Amino acid sequence: MLITSVLRCSKVMDKTLIELVGHQTQLIVELGEYAEIVHWGKKVSGAHAGFRQALLRPVPYGRLDNDVAMTLHPELGRGVFSSPALEGHRNGQDWAPVFTIIDVEHYLNGIVIKSEDNNAGLCLKTELFIDRHDVVKTRHTLTNTKVGIYQINRFANTLPLPERANEIMTYYGRWVNEFQTVRAPLAHGGYQQENRRGRTSHEHYPALVAGSKSFGEMSGDIWGFHFAWSGNHRLRVDVKADGRRYMQAEVIYLPGEESLEKGKSISTPWLYATHSFEGLNGMSHHFHSHIREYILPRSFKEKPRPIHLNTWEGIYFDHDPEYIMSMATQSAKMGVERFIIDDGWFKGRNGDKAGLGDWFLCESKYPAGLKLVVDHVNQLGMEFGLWFEPEMINKDSDLFRAHPDWLLAVEGYEQPTGRNQYVIDLQNNDAFNYLFERLDYFLSSYNIAYIKWDMNREVVQPAHLGHAAGHNQTLRYYDLVDKIRLRHPSVEIESCAAGGGRIDFEVLKRTHRFWTSDNNDALERQTIQRGMSYFFPPEVMGCHIGASLCHSTRRRHNIEFRGLTALYGHMGIELDPVKEDQKERQGFERYINLHKKLRPLLHSGRTWRVPTDDDSHQIHAVVATDQSEAIVIISQLTMPTHSLSGCLRIPGLDEQAKYRVSVLDHPSNYDDIVNYQPPWTKLGCELSGEWCKEVGLAMPILDAESAMLIRFERLN
Ligand code: DGJ
Fold first, then answer.
1. Which residue has the higher pLDDT, 11 or 191?
2. Alpha-carbon distances, residue 356 vs 347, 422, 461 (angstroms)
3. What's the gap between Cα 610 and its chain centre?
4. Which are the catalytic amino acids?
5. β-pairing, 492-495 with 450-453?
6. Which atom, in ligand 1's list, is nearest to the CA of 518?
7. What homologous superfamily is domain 3-56+67-295 in, according to CATH?
8. Tens digits of per-residue pLDDT, 491-541?
9. What count of other Cβ atoms lies within 10 Å of the Cβ of residue 59?
10. What average pLDDT does this structure show over 632-653?
11. Options 3.40.190.10, 3.40.50.300, 3.20.20.70, 3.30.465.10; which CATH number does 298-600 get?
12. Ligand 1 pocket, 498 CB below 6 A?
């Protein structure tokens, strides 16, 4: 990292202002005894003389006599009556620390602030950075510098919000219905979300958005937050009694879980945030670009994302290698590039009641070994992938019979099962090493390019040697993935937790894609994928075409709607291709080919959630970074509200350029449902980028649960 200046001020008495500048936004941080962000928003050009003067607050009657700042680390001892950033004690003492800055390192894109409280014997490091995509990241590290154990109850990251952030968008969800969003006003009190499920969870995705009233996809001031942590967490947005507001994110520590001996430190996870003054699309552009440049494992950036065939919904636990090889043969014919054997391949695994933990090939199912199948898949020109659920154990397994003490549990209590299974205590080194050895064995013995790393239950009573250990279990999970990646750097990993139960930025640093949802119903997927798209680019979103009769909703969809719904993510097929008829197979082949052709654009371009005048349809566009082309998918979710749906207006194109517009795919009954469709959908047309944005094209008429695909190619 380039250091432009290092401000070393032993006890900063006078306040210093530091500007941290992104592409379009900036942070102005005032440093004195403490750090306060005095501006986080649009970059303001020109000299700033006097601006600090302009921002000095009045002090009303009826409260403390001095102005109290909302600092990066709110402290009760300074009179901040907000949720403090740190709650802890040393046997009942040192419980109200007040830190004073002693040292600031100023980098081109950030600051590292060191503060201390010598009375309490604590040292605090605060890191705050902004990148060229306007993504801010911050975390704290606390060190105990005094004799005596310091017990930590809470330790949070805090960022301020301006008063005009008076509406929030938060997430809710569940298994097969992840990433649902909901709006609420932010006027008094605030919002709090607690996740105690031990994994990122389907229910409490660790992110939220605050913004100006009625912020939308294209407009409004937005502050988006993502807490990069895969375990228990608390997110809050508080409106103080004086109207000021802030966002706070923290790990929820279980009782007694975290304490520091002298000289030991603990860090919060990173809190990622961004400001956009161009609505939710602007926010997504910032996060997507940040993920692409800084979060995704480097070595895989250039490689096109191979099209998957995953066996789960095709055969479930019914594994016959001969048949699986015929599935592979059929997959290759359709253009699949990676073939993944899901759950059911290992010892004792004939259903979901037994076998987890026994990571040995089931010899009765695979008498001739796994190599035969892997070689067959490779000879067909496809990569081979295999499913694991390393952190889990069934009581009906040889592993549990040999090591009943490896359970993550509190002795003396019988905890409820989840999918008939329990969690392994990864803090037990023998258990950790066993899992590493088993994964390493398979990855070293077979040509495995990909692991689907699943995690199908929530964590109840996580304990190591009787002590609460939820935080550390998550850290050990990261360690296990990191160790595997270090030993097998070319292997790609998918993060799956019963679908989308473990999707967050911290997991993404060590994995390559997410299994978005166990729900392959194209209609449901539209909302789930849209919710996920606010924070994640399409290439990390596992999107599979399932069977026409969806297994999770029993709803039926034709291949066109399924194909176009899966088209823009990391595409795959989730069914048994041998059993499908010729027409369906031709359909798979068609969308596989379309995806391959469009993949370079879809996985590098800018995503736009295109506003529509009618909520019955949802429009998704991807525009090339050089604006040379764009792909637009119109999905008709329910019946259109009116018989005509106005115009399709596409943002993000080069306004000065001319584009050729053509339809690449539409429902097979497209012409039968109306007298006639807009002529441009047949003959194409040529329009300027400005026209496309401001005026648009007459919307075609589509049946509910159908979609069409349009291309814009720049002509000049
Ligand atoms: C849950 C996953 O989400 C599914 O895709 C599948 O891998 C099953 N687990 C296997 O048990």
1. 191
2. 9, 9, 20
3. 21
4. 454, 518
5. parallel
6. 3
7. alpha-galactosidase from lactobacil brevis (2.70.98.60)
8. 999 999 999 999 999 999 999 999 999 999 999 999 999 999 999 999 999
9. 11
10. 97
11. 3.20.20.70
12. yes
